[in-house]
Amino acid sequence: MSFSDLVSERCSIRAFKSRALDKSAISQILQVTAKAPSAGNLQAYEVVLIQDSRRRQVLADAAWGQDFIAKAPVVLVFFADPKLSASRYGNRGIELYCLQDATVAAAYTQLAVTDLGLGSVWVGAFQDEAVREAVDAPKDLVPVCILPIGYPDESPRPTPRRSLRDLVKEEKFDG
Q1: Lower Cβ count inside 10 Å, N or C end of the chain?
Q2: For strand 74-80 and strand 142-150, is the pairing parallel, antiparallel, or unpaired?
Q3: Residues of the chain scoring pLDDT < 50
């Protein structure tokens, strides 16, 4: 599949079949995650892999009852690591680069998921401390997103996008 087709095919999936993912698929996804670009190649993020049904439910609760999280056979939680980014970039690393690193890694992950015929959805609405507690993450890590992954049990229609005319502004030079 071409990259353009892959991007066009990716959509938010909130209903998952109960079928488990095999270790090979999980490995392929995580290999792509690790290849995501990052500021200074620090990879100032961590990913927690959750397959335990109890922990998935605790994560769903931490996300204000978004129960589809618990129904996905695999959940990845992406955390920014401000300390690691600050080691090279100071405050800019703390405030921005580590968040960008985690975000780009999660976006690459979503594309890898789609490429394997699986579905995912970006979950950004959650209680930070409850997410940290759910996965035993240190307090210095910042949760960025929860990514439930599984075989889709729905076929949503593509969502409308802003027009390029509205989205892209061309700079005009007087010269």
Answers
A1: C
A2: antiparallel
A3: none
